[in-house]
Design goal:
By secondary structure, this protein is α+β, with helices and mostly antiparallel strands. The protein folds into three domains: 79 residues, Double Stranded RNA Binding Domain, CATH 3.30.160; 107 residues, Tyrosine recombinase, N-terminal domain (DNA polymerase, domain 1), CATH 1.10.150; 170 residues, Orthogonal Bundle (hpI Integrase, Chain A), CATH 1.10.443. Helix content is 48%, strand content 11%. Strand 3 and strand 4 form a beta hairpin. The longest helix is centred in the middle third of the chain and has 20 residues. About 3% of the residues have low confidence.
Length: 383
């Protein structure tokens, strides 16, 4: 017979990281300065866990009392879901509560303000109805499969995104001591053995770039169009910025006198402001817009949707992506100019990837980038 009441208050303080049995299905899970109680049991041959709260908020004696009650209920054949109300510590969040806490924790670093809502929407649609009320310790492989299996083949991209989000949320619960280090939403050596590769079901399509040789013809066609989406497309081609940065351009960011556009950090993916050199054709577009725009935004009363701009590109150039236009610029610069790599990366608003290099390279290389964009505009419009 397995001994119970193995742990002591004094002994707990000196325990190493890991799972420590008190006997009678009760374990203390310790990681760094955190410790939490776990009740382990078997159901249909599979090991399950219930979180009983953190230590010392729930004392050793209290945890033993709850564990004893749970053992009795298990022997009485009480359904496992009914045990939750008896065992749940107010300090142990459900998966739903954990997910919402994770979203709030990450919200400040997401540049796209809609990102948090997108996370919430997909979780409310596909995850919460099935396992939202589970404790983090109750989410096992079968729970993850229950969420993903119905949509893995039909909505592969959505299913992949949900899996990634579940993995991140469960990692968050592990760090906070709400479950063991095992993450059932992990792909490598785990779900990859359960589901077919997403790439084989729905091949990944990288950003399709307009061939460099076709850029001049595209720009000439856009130039003679008075449609707003055409003006946006030509402007973002000439500046090599992202679609959202061009569509959301504000007059307060534009300095026509110095031919400079300052994109603030809160609108940059890299969370750093960027001074964009404006070539003569780009300035011309802004002057035209100034006649028609008297509001906050350069291109219309409110930012045009990316869909509208994408449709216009498809209409004029074929099945290419707007983001791919940045790749077209990069290819032109690499293959036809002698500008240094770091200047071209700066023109795209990219950081070096090294905080040390960025710290020493304090110059924004604006004048060098001005020359790059002038040459790019000449290529695009033959001037």
């Amino acid at each position: 017979m397995v001994a119970i009441n193995r742990l002591t208050v004094r002994g707990i303080a000196g325990l190493a990281d890991g799972n420590h049995s008190d006997g009678g299905n009760l374990y203390l899970r310790k990681k760094g300065q955190r410790a939490s109680w776990v009740f382990r049991y078997k159901l249909k041959g599979r090991v399950k866990e219930l979180g009983l709260g953190s230590y010392p908020i729930r004392s050793l004696s209290e945890a033993r009392k709850v564990a004893a009650e749970l053992r009795t209920q298990l022997l009485d054949g009480l359904p496992v879901r009914s045990l939750k109300s008896q065992s749940q510590d107010p300090d142990v969040p459900t998966l739903r509560e954990s997910a919402l806490a994770y979203i709030e924790a990450k919200r400040p670093e997401w540049t796209n303000k809609k990102h948090a809502q997108q996370w919430t929407n997909t979780l409310e649609t596909y995850v919460f109805p099935k396992i939202g009320d589970y404790l983090p310790s109750e989410v096992d492989l079968s729970a993850v499969e229950a969420v993903l299996q119905p949509i893995w083949s039909e909505k592969t991209e959505t299913a992949t995104r949900i899996r990634q989000r579940l993995e991140a949320i469960l990692d968050w619960t592990i760090v906070h001591g709400y479950r063991s280090a095992d993450n059932p939403a992990r792909w490598k050596n785990n779900l990859e053995r359960v589901f077919p590769s997403p790439a084989k079901i729905s091949p990944v399509s990288h950003f399709s770039a307009v061939p460099v040789a076709q850029i001049p013809e595209l720009c000439q066609r856009l130039r003679v169009s008075d449609v707003l989406s055409s003006q946006i497309l030509l402007f973002l081609i000439l500046t090599a910025v992202r679609s959202g940065e061009a569509r959301g351009a504000r007059w307060e960011e534009i300095d026509l006198a110095s031919s400079r556009w300052i994109i603030p950090s809160d609108r940059k993916k890299e969370r750093r402001s960027l001074a964009v050199p404006l070539s003569a054709p780009a300035i011309q577009i802004l002057k035209i817009r100034s006649v028609f725009s008297d509001g906050e935004y350069v291109f219309g009363g409110k930012p045009l949707s990316d869909t509208g701009v994408s449709k216009q590109l498809k209409r004029y150039a074929g099945n290419y992506t707007v983001h791919g236009l940045r790749s077209s610029f990069r290819q032109w610069a690499a293959e036809t100019t002698q500008y240094p790599e770091h200047v071209l990366e700066k023109a795209l608003g990219h950081s070096s990837g090294s905080h040390l290099i960025d710290a020493y390279q304090r110059s924004d290389l604006f004048e060098q980038r001005r020359d790059v964009m002038k040459d790019w505009a000449s290529y695009c419009l033959g001037e």
